[in-house]
């Protein structure tokens, strides 16, 4: 796609090969072009970030507060390597009320500054913005730095994601691949065998999701930032 045109020079004894830069007549797609519709925090009624949260301890400071609210210092493409998939377990109803309940759980019960996931996807295929992508999530204990957390609403011990939900998740993942340039996709349970998240009926689809998005499947790509601890050491998901 990026290759320029090859032009053979005329009238010379040896053809002159000139590689032209992409002339702009077929511009490469930018991540924004493929961004699926994502309901903003304002649209679903998210509460603002609470930097007094007891378990995020205010803002990150290297050395003195490694578990704090950590804004990635490098570009997002340099900061992320892995997308981690979750389910919401008992919080499976649709719509903003569920999101507000998950945010309440994470803020009030878990003591985090904000909802821990970066994105959530409901059964109708609506995608919701969670924690800002510029900030380390709180979704996979010990593996939060450099991983983006995506939660599909539902309890996938008992049912598989709907087609609309799977299609939306794949659209989101494909867009994140363009935006963040990750190498791997994994389920929460692969990082933490003690949880059943994201549930066996979603877990069975994840290798196919990874392949469809051009990612490798598993935890091998995870590379935590050298100068930051791995964020809140709690399992976000109820189950
Ligand atoms: Zn999880």
Give an account of the 3D structure:
This protein is an alpha/beta fold and 239 residues long. It has a single domain (36-217), classed as Peptidoglycan recognition protein-like (Lysozyme-like, 3-Layer(aba) Sandwich). Helix content is 24%, strand content 13%. It is built from 6 helices and 9 strands; from the N terminus they run βββααβαβββαβααβ. The strands form 2 sheets. Strands 3-6-5-7-4-8-9 form a 7-stranded mixed beta sheet. Strands 1-2 form a two-stranded antiparallel sheet. A hairpin with a 5-residue loop joins β5 and β6. The model is unreliable at 1-12 (pLDDT under 50). Zinc ion binds at residues 86, 188, 195, 197, 236-237.
State the main characteristics.
239 residues, alpha/beta, Lysozyme-like, 7-stranded mixed sheet, two-stranded antiparallel sheet, globular, binds zinc ion
Topology at a glance:
Elements: E1 6-8, E2 17-19, E3 38-39, H1 41-44, H2 76-79, E4 82-87, H3 96-109, E5 119-121, E6 127-129, E7 147-152, H4 163-180, E8 184-187, H5 188-191, H6 200-212, E9 216-217
Parallel strand pairs: 3-6, 4-7, 4-8, 5-7, 8-9
Antiparallel strand pairs: 1-2, 5-6
The structure holds zinc ion.
The site of zinc ion has 6 residues, from loops.
């Amino acid at each position: 796609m990026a290759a320029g045109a090859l032009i053979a020079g005329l009238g010379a004894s040896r053809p002159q090969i000139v590689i032209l830069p992409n002339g702009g007549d077929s511009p490469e797609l930018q991540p924004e072009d493929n961004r699926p519709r994502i309901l903003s925090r304002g649209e679903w009624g998210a509460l603002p970030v609470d930097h007094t949260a007891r378990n995020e301890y205010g803002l990150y400071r290297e050395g003195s507060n490694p578990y704090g609210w950590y804004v990635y210092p490098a570009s997002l493409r340099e900061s992320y390597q892995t997308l981690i998939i979750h389910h919401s377990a008992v919080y499976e109803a649709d719509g903003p009320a569920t999101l507000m309940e998950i945010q309440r759980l994470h803020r009030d019960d878990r003591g985090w500054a904000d909802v821990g996931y970066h994105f959530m996807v409901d059964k109708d295929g609506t995608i919701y913005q969670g924690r800002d992508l510029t900030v380390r999530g709180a979704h996979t204990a010990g593996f939060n730095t450099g991983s983006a957390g995506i939660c599909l609403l539902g309890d996938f011990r008992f049912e598989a994601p709907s087609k609309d939900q799977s299609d939306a998740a794949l659209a989101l993942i494909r867009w994140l691949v363009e935006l963040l340039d990750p190498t791997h996709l994994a389920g929460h349970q692969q990082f933490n065998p003690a949880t059943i998240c994201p549930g066996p009926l979603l877990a069975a689809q994840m290798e196919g999701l990874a392949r469809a998005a051009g990612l490798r499947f598993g935890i091998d790509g995870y590379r935590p930032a050298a100068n930051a601890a791995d964020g809140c050491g709690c399992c976000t998901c109820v189950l």
